[in-house]
Design brief:
The chain is α/β, with parallel strands linked by helices. It folds into two domains: 282 residues, 3-Layer(aba) Sandwich (Beta-lactamase); 165 residues, D-tyrosyl-trna(Tyr) Deacylase, Chain: A (3-Layer(bba) Sandwich), CATH 3.50.80.20. Helices cover 33% and strands 16% of the residues. The chain is built from 13 helices and 16 strands. The strands form five sheets. The protein has a five-stranded antiparallel beta sheet, sandwiched between helices. A four-stranded mixed beta sheet has the order 9-5-3-13. Strands 4-8-12 form a three-stranded parallel beta sheet, with helices on one face. A hairpin with an 8-residue loop joins strand 15 and strand 16. The protein is elongated.
């Protein structure tokens, strides 16, 4: 259950009842000695009546701590165009304008991850089929072979696998090796294909890029084409990443090259007959890693292409048309099922690339609260992995912040978990800001916001009421 306005009202009312019932006003000075030397029961527990005055100091100190945290957040983030929300054990302990509606940037991927796991399922594996006529006794496949895309966002050639492994941001990315098709054909004794290799990507509806995205997202390689058959995330050149215009055709050419290298001849110049891969039997099948691994890596590296392919798969899983708007609508419905406030929620894609999208820190924190362990495991680790691999190295934040980053021009976000210690409980948080600041200034805001959480003290738990 997320943090709702009702939950906050109940919490405040309980605290007020305890203070009023004990005859202690909010302005009285209270000390730790007020809760010492209490009667002890036979099992060693302190015997304090529920509405005793001496219970009030614990809750007063928690209220003071909450106020100080909110003041610290106010000093860390901009006074306008920003929001923050912080919780401990589903209790809101600090907030600044939590219902402000702001661009989420890549923190939107948390919602996409939750919806994908909910609708598609963590154990789901995407399949890519290679179709063609059965090979004859000499190992010859008559006519073309058709690679039919099934939405696998992890198809990769050997050179792309090497590229990912060398990147601090993408090295945890799971892959489906494209040369698995080659291995299967060799095992079946295929020696020649008397026709071209074709690619089929009809599972999704157009477009490959959204109108709400800035043109430089494509030209700078921040996102590849959204296609059901996508090899190497739809990137041709890798340094820097350069998206291809025809992802299905590119995928076919990559497989053809791998086949030729393995000594399977391909008559690429032969004419391709009319029809689709559906008219041909299946020669080989590739299965992706399980969705849980794909989702976790998507969050770690903030992979926009994977997020957008998953958005269309979410639409399909929810029995909708395979478009981004339908996928986004399904994501919003899943958030509603988790009791996350959607009143100010205006998502326009699954990656957060659309600068006109809107989300509140309250809704984002609620998403962080209800997210399954797969999502928690996927957050980048400060100074260790993904988009935080080179951030906060050698600082007090290294290794203890696990959070989804978000950044566009003039937009910054951070949402996730701060580890607990012996004197501080685990903290969950959400932060968004928009304005005229540089990328470096946006990262400074992320640092200031999460640093403000470090000094929060341990607050009494509800169990303490009965000790």
């Amino acid at each position: 259950m997320g943090i709702t306005r009702r939950g906050r009202i109940v919490g405040v009312s309980l605290g007020a009842l305890l203070v009023i019932g004990g005859g202690v006003t909010a302005r009285q000075a209270l000390s730790v000695s007020d809760v010492q030397s209490e009667p002890v029961t036979s099992n060693g527990a302190v015997e304090i009546p529920l509405f005793a005055p001496r219970r009030a100091p614990q809750y007063w100190r928690a209220a003071v701590a909450d106020d100080r945290l909110t003041a610290g957040l106010q000093g860390a983030i901009p006074s306008e165009g920003a929001c923050a929300a912080v919780s401990i054990g589903h209790r809101l302990v600090g907030a600044v304008d939590p219902d402000a509606s702001l661009a989420p940037a890549s923190t939107m991927k948390i919602l996409t991850a939750i919806a994908a796991l909910d609708l598609i399922g963590p154990d789901h594996r995407f399949t890519t089929e290679l179709r063609g006529v059965e090979p004859d006794a000499d190992g010859v496949v008559a006519g073309p072979v058709v690679m039919v895309g099934g939405g696998d966002p992890t198809l990769a050639t050997p050179r792309y696998i090497d590229y990912l492994a060398e990147s601090s941001r993408f090295r945890t990315t799971p892959v489906t090796p494209l040369d698995g098709f080659v291995d299967q054909l060799v095992d079946r004794g295929v020696t020649r294909i008397d026709g071209p290799v074709l690619g089929e990507s009809g599972r999704y509806f157009e477009p490959a890029y959204l109108e709400t995205w800035k043109p430089n997202y494509r030209s700078e390689g921040q996102v590849g084409p959204i296609a059901a058959l996508n090899v190497n995330h739809g990137f041709g050149d890798l340094t820097p990443p350069s998206p291809v215009d025809d992802p299905a055709g590119y995928a076919a050419r990559q497989l053809e090259e791998l086949l030729v290298r393995s000594s399977i001849d391909v008559d690429a110049g032969a004419a391709a007959p009319a029809g689709t891969g559906d008219d041909l039997p299946v020669l080989a099948v590739l299965e992706s890693p399980p969705l849980r691994d794909i989702v976790a890596a998507m969050l770690t590296s903030s992979d926009n292409t994977v997020a957008e392919m998953l958005t269309r798969e979410i639409a399909i899983a929810d029995e909708r048309a395979a478009t981004t708007p339908e996928g986004v609508a399904a994501i919003v419905e899943v958030m509603t099922e988790y009791d996350i406030d959607r009143s100010a929620m205006v998502p326009l894609d699954g990656s957060g690339l659309s600068p006109e999208a809107r989300l509140t820190c309250r809704a984002l924190l609620d998403a962080v609260e209800v997210a399954p362990d797969v999502v928690d495991d996927g957050y980048p680790d400060a100074a260790e992995s993904g988009t935080l691999a080179v951030r906060w190295v050698g600082t007090e934040l290294a290794g203890i912040v696990h959070a989804k980053t978000g950044q566009l021009n003039g937009v910054v976000g951070l949402a996730g978990v701060l580890d607990g210690t012996e004197v501080r409980p685990e903290i969950r948080f959400a932060f968004l800001a928009g304005g005229s600041f540089s990328q470096e200034q946006g990262q400074d805001l992320q640092t200031a916001m999460v640093t403000a959480l470090l000094g929060y003290p341990v607050a009494p738990t509800l169990d303490g009421l009965w000790d």
